[in-house]
Known about the structure:
Layout: H1 3-6, E1 43-45, E2 52-54, H2 78-129, E3 132-136, E4 140-146, E5 155-159, E6 163-178, E7 182-197, E8 208-212, E9 215-221
Antiparallel strand pairs: 1-2, 3-4, 4-9, 5-6, 6-7, 8-9
Amino acid sequence: MNGNENNVPEISQNSCPQCGIENNENAKFCIECGQSILIQEKENVCYGCGIISPAGTKFCPECGQNLTNQEAPVKSVNKSNNGLRSLIKKDKSITQRRSLTSKLASDVTKAAMKATEDIKKSVEDYTLAVEAEIKETEDSFIVAIELPKIEKEDLDIHITPRKINLKAEFDHEIEIEQGTIITRRETQRGFFNKDIILRKDIIPDESIAEFEDDHLIIKLPKADFKQGFKLKI
């Protein structure tokens, strides 16, 4: 073996042929990369491709790497970390986009739900706001009630001896806010249902009613009223 061959570095039995990391004397696999390190003494390992060559080989027969002055590679983690960071940023941007899409969809859903709730509340408010004025005379009850937005043909009146039930459908317009800029008006069909309780019995089939200029007036004769009359003999 000549002088140049004596200068060829020899790899010890516990050096990894893949990454060059020194392992325990009895290690069978590299603790860093998992490469098998059961190689024979006085064999050279190419740090470029990992090929094992006989002692004294100056150049790798696989890739041409100079085996006489090669240095063990130093494993770098910065590149992979940067790659992970870029993936994290990418995933974050995707998450943000999904979050924005979900928020927009949620806002639309909430707006629709709010519109439905507003309509329901407005109808309830209308029913509560309608108050009946009841006047009692000697022979009857006179009920007056204002019903704006309701047409005569849409009004249904049902009378029992102690109760008046009013039902009607009507068009109801509300404003729906969508954000701070967009506001739209929407017309919905509302339903009105109200009971008026009387303190004495009346005669339903003798009752009369009139509806004009949004005002409903009902006259209901009392059932216990007795009117005297002159008896001729």
